[in-house]
């Protein structure tokens, strides 16, 4: 009988030790996953803020509007849960915004219309919400529309249209001159 009790005690200790090891590993894995998530959020946030500061240095964004532009990223997780799907949404929104700003900045250098771009950015900033209005609806529905309002007509398309119009006019004048001869 003592052997059975002794064997049961040893088995209980082994089960408890195994449970403790498994639970500690689960907690470490959970902490590691959370750390990876936080690192990715930090990377995306810092990258966006660097882009905004570059645009401010290029005098594309006024210094007083920089905090408002940074509020887009700073307030993302204020009223939304920290989840992978929300992180992906944040990455997509910020990538879209920075890509549009980069392309518009390039267009403004080609056309020399920095003032028009600055005005569109001013309108963009004035349409940004405050506080708790930075919610999922804003990031999924309103922000893409605001980003679209930053876009101007493509410089290459306008130049191509003008070139095609000029070629068509030349072709028409050549046809007229060949038919009259």
- Runs in which pLDDT lies below 50 for 5 or more consecutive residues are 156-161
The end-to-end span amounts to: 124 Å
Estimate the mean pLDDT confidence.
83
- Secondary-structure element sequence? HHHHHH
Structural class: mainly alpha
Question: How many strands appear in the DSSP assignment?
Answer: 0
| Assembly form of the protein | single chain
**Could you describe the largest sheet, including whether it forms a barrel?**
none
Structural commentary:
The protein has helices spanning 2-57, 66-74, 84-111, 114-127, 136-150, 155-180. 82% of the residues lie in helices and 0% in strands. Helix 1 (2-57) packs antiparallel against helix 2 (66-74), helix 1 runs parallel beside helix 3 (84-111) and helix 3 packs parallel to helix 5 (136-150). 13% of the residues are buried. With 181 residues, it is an all-alpha fold.
Can you give keywords for this protein?
single chain; 181 residues; mainly alpha; 0% strand
Short description:
This protein has six helices and no strands. It has 181 residues and is mainly alpha-helical. Residues 156-161 have low confidence and may be disordered.
Give the arrangement of secondary structure elements.
Layout: H1 2-57, H2 66-74, H3 84-111, H4 114-127, H5 136-150, H6 155-180
Helix pairs in contact: 1-2, 1-3, 3-5, 4-5
